[in-house]
Design a protein that fits this description.
Blueprint lengths: L1 E7 L7 E5 L7 E7 L2 E11 L11 E6 L2 H13 L4 H5 L24 H11 L3 E6 L5 H14 L3 E5 L7 H11 L3 E4 L5 H12 L5 E4 L11 E6 L17 H12 L2 E6 L4 H6 L2 E4 L6 E8 L7 H12 L3 E5 L6 E6 L16 E3 L4 E3 L6 E3 L12 E6 L1 H11 L5 E4 L7 H12 L5 E4 L12 E6 L2 H5 L6 H13 L6 E8 L3 H7 L3 H12 L8 E9 L2 H15 L5 E14 L2 E10 L2 H10 L6 E4 L6
Parallel strand pairs: 6-11, 6-12, 7-9, 7-10, 8-9, 10-11, 13-23, 14-21, 14-22, 20-21, 22-23
Antiparallel strand pairs: 1-2, 1-4, 3-4, 3-5, 15-19, 16-17, 17-18, 24-26, 24-27, 25-26
The protein binds adenosine-5'-triphosphate (ATP) and zinc ion (ZN).
The site of zinc ion has 7 residues, from loops.
């Protein structure tokens, strides 16, 4: 008998010892019994016969993880505080050695002088940030880098945000690289995935463009990782392990000796601070944008309606942004002032008119619209803070000869729907598009003459040290969708006009000023860690966090910023408590975090969300 240490895929357990008659190679995927179940594991190493009896390996698969992959997974387990098996499970295993095929390509792209400078800058730095205005030609530079990487016999990973894989981007990639490029994201079918993996092994596919899971494909010979729209928060995983694909890209680059490039028109303060940056200014669009402000009443004010009317008369298209989905966000009793809350979450129910229902956006609980206040019985219930559905409805009533399209997660649920709507919009079959954050994401709209930005003060006022950074980036990204040809207008409804007036034309200045505010308090100067506990019994959730806090007092290099009820105190019937720690050293934070494992709390290293 031989004995092996086996890491259990997807399980939070530490590696266990199993035995086998056969000689097993490290890295191979095996099937093993665990209590009464059969699970998959990865052979880590051969070990001495233990003093206890162990179970036998049932089956050895042909798939395996390379030593490099296991090394990367070990880092993920350490840094994001999960088991090795959970970290390994992020990766797609190899099924065979990759054949080495040198693919020669020629994109025939002629870069401008300034783009050439950016290209050389990137060539001469192992990691870099391309801070380029919208339309400054970042994507063309990426393509040129892909070409060079392929011609050097290496592979490319091109990461895009969840919704950034637009039909336009696909077309551009296919145009230049044909069958050498594959698109990868969680929604493609298992069959398609298998076909892609096969072609990767055969060396036919050497560029993978995809969402964050594309970082974990069996690529043996990566020469370049590009993270486009690096400010986008969809690179951060919302589940354990709560990794950030952008940060992992930088780590992978270092370990695999691959170049890593982050790109954005509105980079994060962290990337701007830590990476060598090339500032690419100007735009290839022949356009000018005029920014206007409305500091009056909220919602579809006179000024807003007038601006839309003017744009429509000039045969221009309009986009309207607001941060809220549904018809209304708050349903309030006029007599007692109570909000109607979800019975399972401490958040207001949203009104979805077409479903004739109130719906919770956190747990999806749905109930009929009440006629009287559930608290006091009064029959005057009013709705406040309009959402995308309501604004769409109001606009289609007012501009009844024009086509209005809602553009958010309620309306755009599939990739097909997304590309259909975008195509219709670009064919000018839609006049007004009303949407949430989805509107701002890298889409290339040709005919937009006006962008209206509503409800932005709610975002600016969020209790999050990144609120200013996130909001300004969002407004700038939306503004960047306008006037890609000719004259365009942006109308921002805000009582913080001064902030936007000061910084909208100069994001770089904002970043430099913001650095001053963060010094000594927040990232990128401090490392942060968030600990969450959730329990159906409020006492339990609270006790756990208090235990975490008292443990934390023994670690001299960390500072507990605060702890208590989370911003959203209850979700899906579980009470939520949180604790925030910061330190100059990630090592100190991790030492603390790893001692918390027995408490079954959730650990979020470098958190982005504080709700
Ligand atoms: N060297 C060039 N010569 C001519 N046209 C160019 C050149 N580089 C880019 N363009 C054109 O300019 C437009 C914007 O370029 P590109 O999409 O690469 O910019 P971007 O910075 O990636 O934009 P976004 O911020 O929207 O992602 C495109 O239509 C592109 O074809
Ligand atoms: Zn709920």
């Amino acid at each position: 008998m031989h004995y092996y240490l086996v890491s259990l895929l997807k399980s939070p357990l530490s590696p266990l010892t199993y035995c086998s008659d056969a000689i097993l190679e490290a890295g191979f995927v095996v099937e093993i019994p665990l209590s009464k179940r059969i699970v998959q594991g990865v052979v880590l190493e051969r070990v001495e016969k233990p003093s206890f009896a162990c179970e036998e390996v049932l089956l050895t698969y042909k798939t395996f993880y390379t030593p490099k992959t296991v090394e990367l997974a070990r880092f993920i387990a350490e840094y994001y505080v999960c088991s090795l098996g959970e970290a390994l499970a992020l990766f797609t295993p190899f099924s065979q050695k990759t054949l080495h095929v040198n693919q020669k390509v020629n994109t025939h792209i002629a870069l401008s002088a300034e783009q050439e400078n950016a290209f050389s800058f990137i060539e001469s730095h192992p990691n870099a940030l391309l801070f380029g205005d919208t339309g400054s030609g970042k994507t063309e530079i990426y393509m040129k880098l892909f070409e060079a990487t392929l011609n050097a016999g290496k592979q490319v990973v091109f990461l895009l945000p969840e919704i950034g894989l637009t039909p336009q981007m696909k077309n551009r990639l296919k145009h230049h690289f044909g069958t050498h490029v594959a698109i990868w994201h969680s929604k493609i079918s298992a069959k398609k995935k298998e076909a892609i993996l096969q072609e990767i092994h055969e060396g036919k596919i050497c560029i993978v463009a995809g969402t964050r899971s594309a970082l974990f494909l069996p690529l043996e010979n990566i020469g370049l990782i590009v993270v486009d729209e690096e400010h986008d928060e969809s690179y951060k995983s919302g589940n354990r392990p709560r990794y950030n694909a952008k940060d992992l890209a930088l780590l992978f680059g270092q370990k695999l000796k691959a170049k890593v490039l982050l790109g954005s028109a509105t980079p994060t303060l962290s990337s701007f601070h830590k990476l060598p940056t090339f500032r690419l200014k100007g735009t290839f669009f022949e356009a000018s944008t005029h920014i206007m402000y409305d500091d009056g009443e909220h919602g579809l004010s006179h000024k807003v309606v007038q601006a839309i009317e003017k744009a429509l008369k000039a045969k221009k298209q309009v986009i309207v942004f607001l941060p809220t989905r549904a018809n209304f966000k708050y349903i309030t009793c006029k007599a007692c002032g109570a909000h109607i809350e979800c019975p399972f979450c401490s958040v207001g129910m949203s009104l979805h008119q077409h479903m004739h229902a109130l719906k919770c956006h956190y747990c999806n609980y749905t109930e009929a619209i009440p006629h009287v206040c559930p608290k006091c019985g009064h029959d005057e219930i009013v709705a406040t803070r309009m959402g995308t559905a309501e604004v769409s409805l109001k606009l289609s009533e007012h501009f009844c000869e024009h086509v209005v399209q809602q553009f958010d997660r309620d309306e755009v649920k599939t990739e097909k729907k997304l590309s259909d709507i975008l195509a219709q919009f670009n064919e000018h079959k839609i006049d007004i598009m009303v949407g949430t954050q989805m509107l701002s994401k890298g889409h290339d709209y040709h005919g937009v003459g006006l962008a209206v930005i509503l409800g932005i003060d709610a975002l600016l006022g969020m209790s999050d040290f990144r609120a200013r950074e996130k909001t300004l980036a969002l407004v700038q990204q939306i503004a960047g969708r306008v006037g890609r040809k000719g004259y365009g207008e942006v109308l921002i409804q805000s009582k913080n006009g001064d902030f936007f007036k000061h910084y909208l034309s100069d994001f770089e200045q904002f970043l430099n000023d913001e650095l001053g505010f963060r010094k000594g308090l927040y990232p990128p100067f401090k490392k942060m860690l968030r600990v969450m506990s959730a329990h159906v019994k409020e006492e339990k959730a609270k006790e756990s966090i208090e235990k975490v806090a008292s443990l934390g007092k023994h670690f001299s290099q960390i500072e507990i910023v605060g702890y208590g009820k989370a911003n959203i105190a209850k979700i899906a019937n579980k009470y939520r408590y949180e604790l925030l720690v910061r330190s100059d050293s990630s090592k100190a934070l991790l030492e603390f975090a790893h001692t918390l494992k027995p408490l079954h709390v959730e650990i979020d290293m470098d958190p982005l969300s504080f709700s």
